[in-house]
Design goal:
eleven-stranded mixed sheet, 43% strand, 11 strands, 173 residues, mainly beta
Length: 173
């Protein structure tokens, strides 16, 4: 259950939004939103909940439109906006699923960005809180880098044929 929560929170790291590019001084959430719509953007993120049992995590992500590659909390995720590949190297499990057309945080996180509250930016990082079902998740984004969009989308795809035979691959497409 904790791994599933880590997966969901890691995936949520997309909201708060490796590659060559220069670190950017980002004035705030509006500028980050513009970058995410027009560029290839990479950043590091961390999150924390303050429930009875605090949950923390961190990772890095590269985003281009609805496509992304993310690594964090022991998971690696590739999404080309049609298919999502989630790998758990520790468990040696891979999940392949179709990205839904319905709005959800994993298939298109950009619309959720405006749900952050208490957003602060010091030019080097952006932080804010997302509230859902009475739970607050605090996010911090650092090392924001942007570059020109990729025309070759293979970066956002994973080929499970390269996995060893001891991996369990669940294809839900």
């Amino acid at each position: 259950m904790r791994r599933l929560l880590a997966y969901l929170l890691t995936a949520f790291g997309l909201l708060c939004t490796s590659v060559t590019g220069q670190n950017r001084v980002v004035a705030g959430l509006e500028e980050l939103t513009r970058l995410l719509q027009s560029s290839l953007v990479s950043f590091d993120y961390s999150y924390r909940t303050d429930d009875k049992v605090a949950v923390t995590g961190k990772g890095s992500i590269t985003v281009q439109g609805k496509m992304y590659v993310m690594e964090g909390d022991g998971l690696r995720i590739w999404c080309d906006s049609v298919t999502r590949w989630t790998l758990d190297p520790e468990a040696r499990e891979a999940y392949i699923e179709t990205v839904s057309d319905s709005p959800d945080i994993l298939s298109n996180p950009l619309p959720y960005i405006n749900s952050l509250t208490g957003v602060k930016s010091d030019g080097n990082s952006i932080s804010g809180t997302y509230s859902s079902q009475g739970k607050d998740i605090r996010f911090t984004i650092t090392n924001i880098r942007s570059s020109e969009r990729r025309s070759d989308f293979s970066f956002f795809r994973f080929d499970p044929a390269g996995l060893k035979k001891d991996w369990v691959v669940t294809d839900l497409r």
